[in-house]
Specification:
It contains 5 helices and 15 strands. The chain is an alpha+beta fold. The strands form 4 sheets. Strands 1, 4, 8, 9, 12 and 13 form a 6-stranded mixed beta sheet that branches. Strands 6-3-10-5-7 form a 5-stranded antiparallel beta sheet. It has a two-stranded antiparallel sheet with strand order 2-11.
Length: 343
């Protein structure tokens, strides 16, 4: 008699077959020429040169940059790695980062050139470049930008294109069509010796739309469904607030804003509400050496559609939990749990 034994041999994890699909899907959108990532991840050589670093930042959850808890809620545009994907990266690095057969490579996705959305209908930007001093100090500068439109336009997407990946920390865009507000902003601009004017945390004026658009590294452009969007009118202006991180050398920035128009009329205009100090249940005060939780709420008077939530903390904030609750019948919740540190 003869006995036959079948042995299963683990398949070697290679770049082209196993790792390239992960990197191209989760990393390369930012890590390519002209984008915010400090190094490109488009070829085997580029990825293998940083293999150990990639394993570290993916295992710790630092990359891809996605702070919401994906086990808690599902959100549009989320970018995270599964445990299986992180395991493949670790196995690949431990195995010496073999390249494998180039024929197994899925090929780079078709990334739009100079944009993550496509060809913009209108490009707006700072009238002149801003020089951020190399004094290791954070700088918040607001730039007044006329839209220049001669007729009302409905916006389907807002894309902020940072001009300097080294010092551009984040950007916020506000909208106003109020002549008094525009005059006030222009006056502050004229009184500041630099382009724009300095304003920490806000725009220094009361605007109709506080968050017309925004950008931080790793976030996709703001895109609306076909029936929703922003509206800009003749005579309107955008206020671009740039937060520049500390730098030891002078850095020049000239950020641009890409606007994309709807082809068909929208049914509803998007608005922004802010959970600020006035919506808190108690005064915002944190005693020393204590962990404290605050609660804020905004009553909803009619039917609305929730488009997005943008939690934001500075230094002491660590996590948000956001939910909607109905008072009619059974309690129902829509949740977002996000961890935010040093934003």
């Amino acid at each position: 008699m003869a006995s036959f034994v079948q042995l299963g041999r683990a398949q070697t994890v290679t770049f082209h077959q196993d790792i390239a699909p992960i990197i191209y899907n989760a990393c390369t959108q930012c890590h390519r020429s002209g984008e915010i990532g400090p190094m490109p991840f488009t070829t085997y050589q580029e990825v293998a040169a940083h293999g150990n670093f990639i394993e570290y930042v993916t295992q710790t959850g630092y990359m891809p940059p996605w702070t919401p808890d994906h086990h808690y809620s599902t959100l549009r545009g989320e970018r995270f790695l599964t445990e299986e994907e992180k395991g493949l990266i670790s196995t690949w690095v431990a195995g010496g980062m073999p390249e494998g057969n180039p024929m197994d490579n899925p090929g780079l996705p078709d990334y739009p050139e100079g944009s993550q959305v496509g060809e913009p209908d209108l490009v707006l930007g700072m009238s002149e470049a801003f020089v951020h001093q190399g004094n290791m100090v954070d700088q918040y500068q607001v730039f007044v930008i006329p839209t220049g439109v001669t007729e009302t336009k409905e916006i389907r997407a807002v894309e902020i294109r940072p001009g300097n990946n080294v010092v551009d920390h984040h950007a916020l865009v506000a909208y106003t069509n109020d002549p008094a507000v525009i005059a006030q902003a222009l006056a502050m601009d004229a009184s500041d010796p630099n382009p724009g004017y300095e304003s920490f945390g806000d725009y220094g004026v009361e605007v109709e739309q506080f968050l017309f658009g925004g950008w931080v590294p790793g976030t996709p452009p703001l895109e609306f469904p076909p029936t929703l969007g922003h509206v800009i009118e003749p005579g309107s202006h955008l206020l671009l607030q740039m937060h520049y991180g500390p730098s030891s050398v002078e850095a020049i920035d000239q950020t641009e804003i890409n606007l994309f128009f709807h082809d068909e009329p929208i049914q509803r205009e998007v608005e922004t509400q802010i959970f600020g100090p006035e919506t808190l249940d108690e005064f915002f005060y944190i005693p020393a050496n204590e962990v404290k939780t605050f609660h804020a709420s905004i009553p909803i008077q009619g039917d609305i559609s929730l488009m997005s939530i943008t939690p934001h903390c500075h230094l002491l904030g660590t996590a948000w939990e956001v939910f909607a609750r109905s008072n009619d019948g059974p309690v129902s919740y829509t949740h977002l749990r996000a961890h935010e540190t040093l934003r």
